[in-house]
Design goal:
- The protein is α/β, with parallel strands linked by helices and 284 residues long.
- The chain is built from eleven helices and ten strands.
- Strands 1-2-4-5-6-7-8-9 form an eight-stranded mixed β-barrel, surrounded by five helices.
- Helix 5 runs parallel beside helix 6.
- The radius of gyration is 20 Å and the shape is globular.
- The protein starts with 14 loop residues before the first helix and ends in a 5-residue tail after the last helix.
- It binds ligand C2E and magnesium ion (MG) (3 copies).
- One magnesium ion binds next to strand 6.
Length: 284
């Protein structure tokens, strides 16, 4: 990145910065081809109800297997895909792929109640998300209630009016809505009333600190109380330890997701997990 120092001044590029810029450009070019080359795939992570141990859902998480770099984490390429607009096309592919997967699990009799897809702010503000969702549902024959969309608090900040309208339309269609990373974004609580969501996901940063940080524990309890009083389902993400699950259950949290249950799995392994789970739910 060049830093202007006023008229007549030289722009200064540090070797490190231009290296990083080159790196970004290369990654962006590769990303443009990734979809067509079949380098993208979806992994699935289970969500389990704390009271019954029943499987409550699956979350689809995007993976990119780069031919030379190997596995590139979503946090390294989704922001890039958002900046260059590629996320809209990628998002459509994700919705279609997940709906096809739900259909396949339904036919095998192992579909979870809901399967969640992460939605980017750019999809919500720029793409025609409502049409994309309806097309993916139509083509696969999946019922809207089987699909859950995860949005973040900052998701609705870009094009507020349009985003709220789109989410209201999706809600009317019967799709479930969930607020991801709850408590970490910039927003007022009033949007929780305006947005008809079904579910709050407590961000894993709070869950992680919860057992030895009274502030984090207080936030977790407050989110559970707030969500409950609004009739929302509460899920905690990033649960790794049995004692975290026990604490969350004692506080009235409904569902957990995290490495304690399973890491995100490729589609085939996720199907096997669903099949096994139907026979023998784990006990906490
Ligand atoms: P997220 O939606 O909040 O997903 C949760 C992240 O936490 C995932 O990382 C998941 O693998 C990880 N995780 C789950 N359980 C645990 C645990 O017990 N411990 C720890 N340390 N981590 C856990 P991942 O897959 O790397 O995804 C990162 C973020 O990338 C996601 O955060 C989401 O914001 C974004 N993302 C992933 N897939 C998609 C997608 O298909 N579309 C869009 N727009 N964004 C996506
Ligand atoms: Mg998510
Ligand atoms: Mg999250
Ligand atoms: Mg996140």
């Amino acid at each position: 990145q060049a830093k202007g120092k006023g008229p007549g001044q030289l722009c200064y590029h540090s070797p490190e910065m231009s290296g990083r810029a080159r790196e970004r450009l290369a990654l962006e070019a590769d990303l443009r081809g990734a979809l067509a080359k079949g380098e993208l795939s979806l992994h699935y992570q289970p969500q389990v109800a704390l009271d019954s141990g029943a499987l409550a859902g699956m979350e689809a998480l995007l993976r990119w297997t780069h031919p030379t770099r190997g596995s590139v984490p979503p946090n390294a390429f989704i922001p890039l895909a958002e900046e260059c607009g590629l996320i809209v096309e990628m998002g459509d592919w994700i919705l279609e792929t997940v709906c096809r997967q739900i259909r396949q699990w339904s036919e095998a009799g192992i579909a979870p109640r809901h399967t969640a897809v992460n939605i980017s702010a750019v999809q919500l503000s720029r793409g025609n998300l409502f049409d994309s969702v309806r097309r993916a549902l139509d083509v696969s024959g999946v019922a809207p209630g089987q699909l859950e969309l995860e949005i973040t608090e900052s998701c609705v900040m870009l094009e507020r009016e349009l985003s709220f309208k789109t989410l209201a339309d999706l809600h009317a269609l019967g799709v479930r809505l969930s607020i991801d990373d709850f408590g970490t974004g910039y927003s007022s609580l009033s949007y929780l009333q305006q947005l008809a969501v079904h579910k709050l996901k407590i961000d894993m940063s709070f869950v992680r600190g919860m057992m030895d940080n009274s502030g984090n524990a207080a936030i977790v309890r407050a989110v559970i109380a707030l969500g409950k009083s609004m009739g929302l389902e509460i899920i905690a993400e990033g649960v790794e330890q049995p004692e975290q699950a026990r604490y969350l259950r004692a506080q009235g949290c409904d569902v957990i997701q995290g490495y304690l249950l399973s890491k995100p799995m490729p589609a085939v392994a996720a199907g096997e997990y669903l099949g096994r789970y139907a026979q023998q739910p784990p006990i906490f």
